[in-house]
Write a structure and sequence with these properties.
The complex is a heterodimer of chains A (337) and B (260). Chain A is mainly alpha-helical. Chain A contains 17 helices and 2 strands. Chain B contains 6 helices and 6 strands. The chains are: A mainly alpha (337), B alpha/beta (260).
Amino acid sequence: MIDRLNNALTLFFSLMVEAMPFLLLGVLFSSILLLFVDERKLIAAIPRNPILSALAGSLIGFLFPVCECGNVPVARRLLIQGAPNAMAVGFLLAAPTVNPIVFWATWVAFRDQPEIVFLRIGFSLLIATVVAVIFSTQADLRPLMQPAIAHSMPSPKLQPSVALESTLLQSGTFILGSGSQPLRLDAGMTAAMSNPALSQPLSERWQLMLDNVINEMRELGGVLILGAAIAALVQVLIPREAVLSLGQGQLTSILAMMLLAWIVSICSTVDSFFALSFASTFTSGALLAFLVFGPMVDLKNIGLLLTIFRGRAIFYLFALAAQMTLLLTLLVNLYLS
Amino acid sequence: MTAPSRPISRRPQPAQQWFVWLDIAAVLAWGVLLLKYWLTGKVNILLHPDYVWLAILAGIFLLGIGLLKVGQITTRSRKRQLPALQHLSLFPKGWSATLLLTVALIGLVFTPRPFASQVALERGVTDTLAMTRSQPQAFRSNTRPEDRSIIDWVRTLNVYPEPNAYSGQQANVDGFVIHLPELPENYLMISRFVITCCAADVYPVGLPVKLRQNRSAYPADRWFQVEGQMITEELNNQRQLVILANKLTAIPEPENPYDY
């Protein structure tokens, strides 16, 4: 028993020590993004064609390397600032995976199986783009959004640039005060959603960045600890035969890993190390399913997504992403390995 | 767009202050832990040597931001407060920092130990690299047989598995002892764990050693240098390459127990 505890702790700290640098790198980039980049300039450069903007949104992760906890606030700001729906949804689903830090971390973990690294990026890009295009067929996403966000979004009938600038046609709640201008009640929301830190002087931004790095490191580090503890305990406590019988089934292994990805909610910059601890017992398709599906929708993420979407929209995202992940990784199990 | 409103309070509340110090303690403790693993050499048990520099940098970075934050609040608290950034919390306030701090303190007390034969038996020690496992990274066929390590032998066998091809070659390998229950009493496995990333993915490889006496003289988990000659034998209904031992010398456990 002492030996098992020893092994579990060694395994746990090994995962933590390997993952911590990548977690910090992700946190650092997400903080830089929050404090130094103005997304509005980016939105202006995005093509309006749904497929192109879905693809562009899915690829923006290469400029904005954030994991799923950092990308939800960014996607929210993108939507409010008038980004095409396809771009925002593509970004939401792909950015946590399709970015250089996650690519590097996955490479470190799976350099012996490079197909996992490339298929992870490819599948994430494919699923994100398809789901984003599907969402873009809904001309007005606002019924699917949380009311506070829907209010702040520009109406789809207007050109987004007009909607951003126009003072004549604004949706929202107004009161007529004593002044000559009506006062917009939800203006604070828009202000909070546009990047608040960009209005700060540089010296204060550095201070804010320090705060943000520590805050995100604390929150995501906590999730990392839980994930690493689960990985270590599964390896040490559950009999290997039980794990193997589940992990070697073509379909059961994928479903098990998708469920695990959903529950464990580990950050995408470090989830490849978690998956690595299952590499000897689970099929490649199952590992891929974990790595592709986890960053898109998981238990922790739902809380964050609820700050943008209504439950119905999250269910659509979840169902589409889950079905496509299952289908693609099952093909990997059946034909590639 | 308008600037976010300043908080009404210009000085942090005492409870707020307490949470900030908890954050700082957690960040500093992790910085110290990462650097401790490096300075004591224990990082070799946890990571592949290629990635040790990442852990060192992370430790320095954590110490750096922890100290910067100390500087910030000791000078800032007398001035005005910074605006609070929009921040999404996953745990109730204080939980995450407490968890991080507690785990770092456990890490500072606990000394990681390399895995032993029990883990190897559970993971299944073999002389072949399984399908889910690494392909050979380097193959040196011109190596002299007596210079091959255990993993070199296993890689060589993986490329050309016929045991007879190696019969009569000299063997000189070191590793730890596993007593496989399915092997006769005068056989043991001389083994090494192979690591590609971190301790989570280590897997054992080994070669059977035929002794001239009962294996009880060579307890499990002890480290030995085995010198001998390669022979082919049938073990568990499988023709296998076996080291016929001439000499076993006890060696101390190496600081870096893994093979690559």
